[in-house]
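Quick look at the format.
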Amino acid sequence: MELPAQREPNDVWRDISAHLRRIVGDSTYDIWLAPLVAHSWDGHVLALGAPSRTEGWVSNRYQHLIAACARAVAGTDVRVVFAGDAHPDAPPAAPNLELCNAFNPRYSFDQFIIGDGNRLAHAGSLAVAELPGQAYNPLFLYAPPGLGKTHLLHAIGNYVTTFSGGVCVRYTTVEAFTNHFIAALGSRSLGRFKHTYRDADVLLIDDVQFLASKARTEEEFFHTFNALYETGRQLVLTCDRLPQQLLSVQERLRERFESGLVAEIRPPDLATRVAILRKRVALDRIELADAAALRLIAERVPDNIRALEGALIRVVAHHSLTRRAIDLELASDVLDAIYPAHQPPALSIEAIQACVASHYRLTIAELLSSRRTTRIAWPRQVAIHLARELTDCSLQAIGQAFGNRNHATVVHACKRVSERLVNDPAAVHELEELSSLLRNADSSRPG
């Protein structure tokens, strides 16, 4: 398709955005890209405009993708700029001290899957959203990256904006706070900077661990925190660790972080991970040929919700490119290279010895001794047999582990056990019970 210079900008953008919608999907397009409008088109440069509150985010996140779609549609090189970038010779604009308050509508309490690992954090966040400044102040959420801290911040913002008319909600990251502070110092607009943050009724602050080693920013943050807290306004903070673990942050700030509710978010269990994927599939209207594919994804990606959803996106992308059904086979093919199936560690000979000795009420020393009484010989043969069956150890290694016996002794012990199993149901039961104990104990250990 050709996009000649004389075409109207809106017509050009309509063709490009249709291609863009197919790439990113309806939900992402409707949230972030549908509000874009075309300002100008000269045959090579497309200038777009976005709502001021989201322009920076959309430009950083999607500018290269929009340009790629434009090139694909036009068949030639196209440069995409946003309104603020359209005139490079214009004088620099004043520092933008607006906060990002365009809360992602997908990050709502309805879309948050509750499990044992995040129940307290969810309950605390909902209480704060319902009664800002009255429930838990401050609310401090901590967890490793990718477990839902930012989701809860946006959920609070969405809830308060929707149900608490007239309440001023601000969201920022510590990195953005730092950049705004530095820009305000440089432009001598510190008063405006302070007003921007301190007039908030609810201030949501992401990633406070990045305050470390920023002395002037930390000082300003401390005063902002106090100004809001002392007037009964709500603060919600997220971090990747507990307040007392922020060793490079001033003690007085750590104490304030701990003065409200401190809630941990732990990695989701398997059932919660499957529920998260089901919610995402329903939200994005993804057609599954086999729901077992979701369980496979959940098993392969155990520790990070962001990575979990990324794995689903990867499977869906392969489905789109190859037209293969989204089933167990496709999920396995896609994930094998990145998230290979977990192979539990093999049982150790020491674990087998301990289990067998306990079962037959022997000591480890008796089991490994040279004594040949029936009370000891049979349990020793059983332990050797299990070591042969349940570990990858060589005959020589097994023999050495049982009192430096040679491999012939190991073969003999295994043969004696096999012969007895043919005619002795009690022995069969003993071996089955011991094997079950060992496998269950191994599967319960962290991998």
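Next, a different chain entirely:
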Amino acid sequence: MKNKRGALDISFAWLFAIIVGGFILFLAVYAAIKLIGTEQTVQDAKTGKEIGVLLNPLETSFESGKTSLLTMPVETRIYNKCNNQGTFGRQIIQVSQKSFSKWTETNINVGFSNKYLFSEGYAEGKKFYLFSKPFEFPFKVADLIYVTSSEDKYCFIDAPEEIFGELEDLKQENIFLANCSTGVKICFSGGSGCKVNVNYNAKYVEKNGERIYFEGDSLMYAAIFSDKEIYECQLKRLMQRIEQLTLLYRDKANFVSRVGCDSNLNSDLMQLNTLAKNLKGSEEIYNLKNVAEDIEYKNDLAKCRIW
């Protein structure tokens, strides 16, 4: 009888140890998974911030354009998000990286008020090309940055001479200046199999059945490399920046006029300010063109130039 009770006691002790040990192991695994997830979220946010910092050298100053290669240690998705609320709006970067064959999920956004990225909803890969070009309207407004994955090919077909020359000098390895069997075909004279059609004279880009309007080559590239939603949002942010810059240049014009250097730009600057503030979409960008050109002409002839 004693032996049977002892055997029962031993069996229960082992069973209890197994249950407790399993529970402890579960807690350990759960804690490790949560820790990895938290660390990955922190890493994604840190990467997004670092990308924003790496964009700084692309500010082109007086250069026509430049390109840079961004290399990530693992497969990465760079999500491009735009918010036009507030004075300047926000450029938002969200990063997701592959971990254990799965994409990490994070709701952490890294924002910048002075960056303007143009891309599809997200770019994916380990290497990314960042091509930048200044947007002037008529004064320099900002540097526009176009983000593409090295895994994506862009084939510019029948590009105008000035565009052909600029892209040839750029030497970006995922941009080709001829027809190609694979990749995104960007056609300037129509043709079959073109994903993007550019009407360089009428100033619009047609893709996915929609038209995106532009003025100047920097906005043309923006329309080519980004989707319509991002383009329209970033264009609004650029108009918000123009609003503030026109006020600054108006104050500067008033200041120099007090020392006998009248630029005659006040009314023109405020007209541009109003048009920029009221712009509803890219189809209205043409309304600003003539005013911007008139301001540029007057400033170039002025005894005391405002910029």
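Residues 153-226 form one domain.

See the schema section for token definitions.
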